[in-house]
Specification:
mainly alpha; 4 helices; 58% helix; 0% strand
Length: 65
């Protein structure tokens, strides 16, 4: 399981749509779905953005920079 896939699966139900919307402000819906399904892991350039979104919603950072 990839880190993003694990991170997204562990979100509270009420947070899943807002987190998806925040991520899709930066990447395409197709990229998001590939990350969510574990087909691909986000490139390192997206890690700080994903970490910021996680912290914004009260979750630990999924990526270590």
């Amino acid at each position: 399981m990839t880190k993003f896939e694990e991170f997204y699966q562990n979100l509270r139900v009420k947070d899943s749509d807002p987190v998806r919307c925040e991520v899709e402000k930066h990447v395409s819906p197709v990229s998001f779905l590939n990350w969510k399904r574990g087909t691909f892991e986000p490139d390192a350039r997206w890690w700080p953005i994903i970490n910021d979104i996680a912290v914004k919603y009260g979750y630990p950072k999924p990526y270590t920079l």
